[in-house]
Every structure is written in C-alpha cells, then in structure tokens.
Specification:
Layout: E1 2-9, H1 19-27, E2 35-42, H2 48-60, E3 64-70, E4 78-79, E5 82-84, E6 111-113, H3 118-127, H4 142-157, E7 162-168, H5 172-176, H6 187-208
Length: about 220
C-alpha cells in the first residue's frame, strides 16, 4: 500500500477559498486501490509552510508526495516540471513576507525536477476531457518555494519518495467574483484531475519500483 502525502494551501491574495485545498480535502474521502491518503493543509507563510511540510514528510516517510496549489489565470491543470532556487514574491504572503531575488536554500542546486510521471498524468487527465498541460515554471511564490524545499529535503535526506507539484486554476465561483474575465474550472473537474494524478502516480510507481521518472 502506497502512502501518499498531499499538501495544499489555505486561501491567499484576498480569496476566500483555495481550489487546491478544496480538491485535496475531497481526496481523503476517495478509496484508492493501492494507496492511503494523508493531507497537510499549509499556511501561506514563507517559513511555516516549509516547516510543516518537511516535518510531516520526515515523520510519515510517504512513498509519494503531491503538492497542490492555485494558479489563477491558467486555464489548465498543470503538473510542474521544475522548481527553481529563488524566492521573488509578487505579493506578500498571508503574514506579510515579500522576499525579492533571494535563494530558497543558500548554496543549493539551481533547480530540481519533478519525479512524478507528469506526462502520463497530463495524458490521463486529457482522456477525461479535462484541460491539462505540462508547465515549465512553478513561478517564484510560495508554491515554488515548497516544491523546491520538499525536493531538496528528499535529496539531502536520501529519501525515495516520488514528489512533484500540480497547479490548478480558479474555481468558477472565484472567476464569477472577478471584475475581469479569467479562466476557471468546475470543482468536479479539478477534483477528478487530482484523483487521476494520484491514480497514475501510484500505478506507475507500482509498475516500476523506485526508479525516478522524468518527463
């Protein structure tokens, strides 16, 4: 049985909901054939988010880590290919931190690649008629910071977990409240996309053992 750790963020930037958290909470109700799901709800706080994610990873030693976040303005569910070693926050986090051009880990590698089967995830979501695509930038806000920090922890601690980040668009309820037109997806579509991402990752890991997958 694969232990899957999901991370998702609280609302930020003036929003009252975060689609990543809404979807992640639904995953705790899904029965997966070969996986158990644990959820970590992360604060939008530059320091606490990383501390909480890393502490849970060390405590639970999951086989798979899927980090979720909101990407307002995107029209697709987007597994991220790469995390970069820089904090450059466009807006303050929920406690007022707004670093500019600072490394996440001083002296750390420039970047880490996802070890999720991102292309297979996108293909499977497409088959469900949900918009999806591989993204080559996780930005430089807290999503990228947590993504990089988790991959750095896996590397430096010698862990075998597969891990990566998936961004999801606004929900329809969020888009309706905007003064300008923005893309969005239904709650049902985002929930199903996350479910499929977990399913594909678990299946791929079962088929190929601990071999890392890059796409």
């Amino acid at each position: 049985m694969n232990k899957v750790l999901l991370t998702a963020f609280e609302p930020f930037g003036g929003e009252s909901i975060n689609p990543s958290l809404e979807a992640a909470r639904q995953m705790e109700k899904v029965e997966f054939r070969d996986a158990t799901i644990r959820l970590v709800e992360l604060p939008v706080d530059r320091y606490r988010a990383v501390e909480l994610a890393v502490s849970r990873i060390k405590a639970e030693q999951p086989d798979i880590i899927i980090m979720l976040g909101e990407a307002g303005g995107r029209c697709r569910v987007t597994p991220e290919r790469i995390a970069v070693n820089v904090d450059d926050f466009r807006i303050p986090d929920n406690v007022g931190n707004q670093p500019k051009d600072e490394p996440i880990v001083e002296g750390g590698p420039a970047a880490y690649f996802s070890t999720l089967p991102i292309r297979a995830i996108v293909d499977r979501i497409h088959k469900a008629h949900i918009p999806a695509g591989v993204s080559n930038t996780a930005g430089t806000y807290l999503c990228n910071r947590v993504f990089y920090s988790v991959m750095h922890t896996i590397s430096t601690e010698g862990l075998t977990a597969r891990a990566g980040f998936i961004h999801v668009p606004y929900l329809h309820d969020q888009a309706i409240a905007k003064s300008t037109e923005v893309p969005s997806l239904s709650t049902e579509s985002i929930v199903e996309a996350v479910r499929l991402a977990i399913e594909v990752t678990v299946q791929t890991r079962s088929e190929s053992g601990s071999r890392a997958l890059f796409a």
